[in-house]
Amino acid sequence: MTSTSFEAARTAIVAVGRWLDGKGWAPATSGNYSARLDDGGFAVTVSGRHKGRLTPDDVMRVDADGASLDGKKPSAETALHLALYRAFPDVGAVLHSHSPTAVGLSRAVAGEGYRLAGHEMLKALPGIATHDITVTLPIVENSQDMAVVETAIAPRLLESGAIPAYLIRSHGLYGWGCDMAEAERVIEAIEWMIAAELAERSFR
Ligand SMILES: CSC[C@@H](O)[C@@H](O)C(=O)COP(=O)(O)O
Ligand SMILES: [Zn+2]
């Protein structure tokens, strides 16, 4: 499923906000979520709302250019969501989380990516059927100008073996999937692998 009704998207987005906040991955109004709609538009979280306390009214509609269709103010990062829907027609949902572990990794590690290798959890990512693989989680620099972030990440998304996630340094994690369940799985799997690597280092 790559698109859904607005009402179903609202329900799914409210629920995913509660889940991410419960994990500690959506503090202090951070994060934003979206879904592709049947009518060609997109459901996205209203800017500035606490994502663990969303109501259906905190989920709004935008067109493919990000213009508000109901007078509300869309997420400041709507352009990053729309870029993913444009690049991948089979993407149905995009999630953005702000976990301390993922952000800590992005600050501690220099360079343009972080390699994840050998984890059984890699099989939670779409298209991966073995632990015996190395993937790169791209890291791009943060900017308040979404066009700058989008330009930095665009070529990385199309690399061979690219995974459906990236980190913005000192900011947070983006993950996506064909539907909300797959996007949740991607975020949860990446977060888990980052936490596992942190645990591994602490044991050494
Ligand atoms: C402390 S709020 C973090 C924001 O600046 C931003 O990064 C974010 O994730 C939420 O912005 P929003 O406009 O509510 O979608
Ligand atoms: Zn953010």
From TrEMBL:
EC number: 4.2.1.109
Keywords: Amino-acid biosynthesis, Lyase, Metal-binding, Methionine biosynthesis, Zinc
SMART domains: Aldolase_II
Domain Class II aldolase/adducin N-terminal: 11-198
Gene3D superfamilies in alphabetical order: Class II aldolase/adducin N-terminal domain
Annotated residues for binding of Zn(2+): 96, 98
GO cellular component: a single term: cytosol
GO MF annotation list: aldehyde-lyase activity; methylthioribulose 1-phosphate dehydratase activity; zinc ion binding
Cofactor note: Binds 1 zinc ion per subunit.
InterPro entries: Aldolase_class_II_sugar_metab, Aldolase_II/adducin_N, Aldolase_II/adducin_N_sf, MethylthioRu-1-P_deHdtase_MtnB
Biological process per Gene Ontology, one example term: L-methionine salvage from methylthioadenosine
Requisite cofactors: Zn(2+)
Pfam families reported in the protein's UniProt record: Aldolase_II
Pathways per UniProt: Amino-acid biosynthesis; L-methionine biosynthesis via salvage pathway; L-methionine from S-methyl-5-thio-alpha-D-ribose 1-phosphate: step 2/6
Catalytic activity of the protein: 5-(methylsulfanyl)-D-ribulose 1-phosphate = 5-methylsulfanyl-2,3-dioxopentyl phosphate + H2O
Protein family (similarity comment): Belongs to the aldolase class II family. MtnB subfamily.
Annotated function: Catalyzes the dehydration of methylthioribulose-1-phosphate (MTRu-1-P) into 2,3-diketo-5-methylthiopentyl-1-phosphate (DK-MTP-1-P).
Name of the protein: Methylthioribulose-1-phosphate dehydratase
Species this protein is from: Sphingomonas glacialis
Lineage of source species: Bacteria, Pseudomonadati, Pseudomonadota, Alphaproteobacteria, Sphingomonadales
